[in-house]
Design goal:
The structure holds 2 protein chains of 2 kinds. By secondary structure, chain A is mostly helical. The relative contact order of chain A is 0.04. In chain A, 85% of the residues lie in helices and 0% in strands. Chain B is mostly helical. Helices cover 60% and strands 6% of the residues of chain B. Chain B contains 6 helices and 3 strands. A 3-stranded antiparallel β-sheet of chain B has the order 2-1-3. In chain B, a hairpin with a 4-residue loop joins β1 and β2. The longest helix of chain B has 26 residues. Chain B starts with 7 loop residues before the first helix and ends in a 6-residue tail after the last strand. Classes of the chains: A mainly alpha, B mainly alpha. At the A-B interface, α1 of A face α5 of B.
């Protein structure tokens, strides 16, 4: 996953899909639906997985933000002109 | 050895670079390209080359004039398409046989081939055993990379 070639492949597939959808939306959606049927995972399972992933991400972001607010040294350093602030 | 980039921005600059500047020798980095990179260059040529030319000449008054003329032509086509088609039919009748669907498909193929070309060029560049990758990974005492990516539109 850390290999830049994997990132290139993923970005290329995404760009090809985006251009196809922009030019031929109906055909692209039909092809996508046909491809999804071939995947041996039910729609409900995929929906539940996406739901759990989304909820977990939201909770994680909330907990991290709260943790940073409670971290007094970090919060003070961020508000002052320290290198922590400069680096973002 | 897997190449690591410092940031996604640096990766994108590497992917989009038309050439590389060798900081060590203060000259253009010239090495034989791999076949994959050459194929990628060919596929990206129809879109990247005109863009490069346009960006390099954007300060040229003649080019600005050409842009203005192109803008006026585009506006005329937009406001008076029927008149434009009549004019095209009079000046170049074979152009009337080109349907909008054909134009759309041509643009689609052009964009898709450019994306595939960029991918192939990147794969060629990211070859760990390639001389470009080894030069890219080399850093000086200050931690700066030996090669500097020259983006599209930059005059060398």
């Amino acid at each position: 996953m850390k290999d830049p070639r994997f990132v290139s492949l993923a970005l290329t597939i995404l760009a090809l899909g985006a251009v196809s959808f922009a030019f031929y939306p109906v055909t692209t959606l039909l092809t996508l639906k046909a491809a999804v049927i071939l995947v041996p995972i039910s729609f409900e399972t995929a929906k539940l997985s996406a739901y759990i992933l989304t909820c977990a991400s939201i909770i994680s972001y909330g907990l991290r933000a709260q943790g940073r607010f409670w971290n007094t040294p970090l919060y003070d350093a961020f508000l002052s002109n320290s290198p922590v602030r400069a680096r973002g | 050895m897997i190449t690591h980039f410092d940031s996604f921005r640096e990766y994108m600059r590497f992917v989009g670079a038309k050439n590389f500047w060798d900081r060590q020798n203060n000259c253009l980095w010239v090495v034989p390209k791999s076949r994959l990179e050459q194929l990628g260059d060919i596929l990206t040529y129809p879109l990247i080359k005109p863009l490069d030319f346009a960006f390099r000449n954007i300060h040229n008054p003649l080019f600005i004039t050409a842009l203005v003329v192109a803008g006026i032509a585009a506006t005329t086509i937009l406001f008076y398409p029927a008149t434009f088609m009549t004019l095209v039919g009079t000046v170049m009748p074979p152009l009337l046989s080109i349907t909008p669907a054909t134009g759309k498909f041509t643009l689609y193929i052009l964009l898709q081939s450019t994306i595939v070309g960029l991918f192939l060029r990147t794969c060629g560049r990211l070859n760990p055993a390639g001389s470009l990758m080894q030069a890219w990974n080399a850093r000086d005492d200050l931690g700066q990379r030996r090669l500097f990516p020259i983006t599209v539109g930059v005059r060398i």
